[in-house]
Amino acid sequence: MRWLLLISFLGVGVVAPAQGVTLTVDPTLEKKPISPYLYGGNGMLPGQSSTSGSTADQWVRLRDSGMRFLRQGGGNNSTKYNWRKRLSSHPDWYNNVYANDWDKAVRLLQDSLSPAVTGMWSFQLIGRVAATSAANFDDWGYNRSQWWTGVNQNLAGGGTLNPAGGNQALTNGNPDRYLQDWPADSTVGLLDHWRNRLAIPDGRLTYWNMDNEPEIWNGTHDDVVNNSLSAEAFMQRYFAVAKQARARFPGIKLVGPATANEWQWYHWMNRTTLSDGQYLCWLAYFIKRCAEEQKASGVRLLDVLDLHFYPGESSPEQIVQLHRVFFDQTYDYPGANGVKDLTGNWNNSLTKEYILGRVNDWLTQYMGPNHGVKLGITEMDVKSSDPSVTAVWYASMLGEFMQKEVAIFTPWSWKVGMWETLHLFARYSQTTAVKGTSSNETLVSAYPSVNRGGDTLTVVLVNRSTTAAQMTTLNIANFKTPTAPVQALRLAALPAEETFVSHSKNALQPVSIYFTGNATTLTLPPLSITTMTLTESLVTATEPLQKAVSVFPNPGTGIVTVDTDLPFETLTVLDAQGRRFYQFKQHTGKQYDLSALPHGVYTLLLESTKGVQTTRFIKH
Fold it and tell me: Residue 557: its pLDDT value, please?
């Protein structure tokens, strides 16, 4: 453990390694606010999630991990949701209609989680939604509701099953038997229902998805949409819903178009999108049309540009580089495909995606430099079952998105290693990202952040090598580093089973870090994440205090007495990471109630005009 003792500050020096990776952090440069909604997931409410453990265990994980954003619509199942009847048609299961109660979910969010946690549901733009389960295909009678290759056949509404399997039924069901029309005013009516009837605060409902993956509705929802739906016809549906939603709730944040995958970033239903007679890829077209309609109507139509990504890579070496797909203009992505048709003329040499960088350029081009539109990824999954690979991929995504001011990140699947990584970032990182550079960014990255006061710095180090430890030197500029050892926390060599139970019971390993001047050299294990929090010294002593200070009882559970015969002005309670828990104005000897402190070891820092005294306190 690290004890935060009185320290003196050495002159600034730089330690250069003979070999390995050099990282440089400057907390005064490139300051960018970190969106708390990077710490999100899909369908994470206990009882509605696929995460392991009992419901009670899930609540503890959810609260203790620091998760702040819950996308609860349900992906494809949200597109034909009927909020009045609490029904949804399931396109990946015969189009059958089942109960789906968003009212229950939003009440659960409101009643069970901190007001700092926000939920996101979605509007339905497809025009038809579930009406009745009376025309469901009898999947139980057919095969006891077991998955097989025919689950995507359109059998609800009286279809004829194709026993050979595959997506095509012998005869498609009639959607009129299980769907009903759903115009714009019907879907945005959910806002009135939740805000007025259920009295859900606006802060819980600020963000709304504008449906889900419309570019592939001719596949996922082909009982309603065929290939004849043009991009412009979809945009008209989008505008109608967006305008009515904004009229009902001016502070709403509209999140769209929730584009399905890399190919769809550039293509609308495999068709050409033209604007003023010129080819534009799908996302450029979407942004241009939103800009044009906003100018014509005076109504803001887009707040967060939202993508989905399901990469096909399965090798660990490629998975841990997937964060580079979004902004890195030097990265040749092995899975590049749709980008090769970026201009409408296939170019096999185009392999650099930097799709969110391109989106930022299109937003500026069509909406102007002060457009205010943020970026989000609301679905992503990787083909990894190795918790350490998954953890390093997720850490790289969070770190990259912190530095690039991405607003929302909600992975679709939740795998072993992700709770641990989320907890490490959400509970230990600060509120503002700052500059961190690496001599080998592909291999090792530093993701630093500072608090609002600028006196606490957290640095997350990620080693992406799948096989080798990395000797790493970290140089910190413009920040007073400690001479006492710092307790870092590390994730490495994660087992196959879930290890994150709570804030106090998890796989974080303590590691002692020693600074010389403003630098430290440490070895990072392969596929590891290491975080350290540094707090600048509060006071430099003018002369040492000779009188002893004692705390009793120690260890203690509640009321403690601090005894010293010298008067002091303040008493500060700091945890092992150097963070302030309490600060009291004080005089000689007084009792304090420390019962609210979590179990652990703390430093009591007593300051006077003559200097500083410190002592250790153990809370049981």
Answer: 81
Question: Looking at the domain that runs over 550-619, which CATH code has it been given?
Answer: 2.60.40.3080
Helix, strand, or coil (residue 80): coil
Give CA–CA dist 226/269, Å, rounded. 9
Q: Which CATH architecture has domain 21-29+436-535?
A: Sandwich (2.60)
Q: Taking each helix axis as running N to C, give the angle between helix 355-367 and helix 282-297, from 0 to 180 degrees, rounded to the nearest 10.
A: 30
Chain segment 271-320, per-residue pLDDT in tens = 778 888 899 999 999 999 999 999 999 999 999 999 999 999 999 999 99
Full strand arrangement of the beta sheet holding 550-552: 550-552, 559-563, 590-593
State the Cα angle at 322 between 68 and 473, rounded to 5°: 85
**Token duo for residue 23:** 């990282």
What burial class does residue 510 get, using C-beta atoms within 10 Å of its C-beta: 0-12 exposed, 13-18 middle, 19+ buried? Answer: exposed
Residue from 123, 149, 286, 268 nearest 205 by CA: 123
Low-confidence ranges of the chain (pLDDT < 50): 1-18, 538-546, 588
What pLDDT is stored for residue 542 in this prediction? 33
Q: What are phi and psi of 424, to 5 degrees?
A: -60, -45
Q: Cα dist. 317→321, 325, 496, 573 in Å?
A: 7, 14, 19, 44
The CATH 2.60.40.3080 domain(s) of the chain lie at 550-619
What percent of the chain is predicted at pLDDT more than 70?
Answer: 90
CATH 3.20.20.80 residue spans of the chain: 34-136+179-429
pLDDT score recorded for residue 508: 97
Q: What is the pLDDT of residue 554?
A: 79
Q: What is the DSSP letter of 64?
A: H
Residues in the chain: 620
Query: Left if phi > 0, otherwise alpha if psi is -120 to 50, otherwise beta: which for 78?
Result: alpha
**CATH 2.60.40.1180 residue ranges for the chain:** 21-29+436-535
The closest of 526, 23, 20 to 317, measured between CA atoms, is 526
At 593, the amino acid letter reads D
Domain at 34-136+179-429, CATH class: alpha beta
pLDDT at 419: 98
**Integer-rounded Cα radius of gyration of the chain:** 27
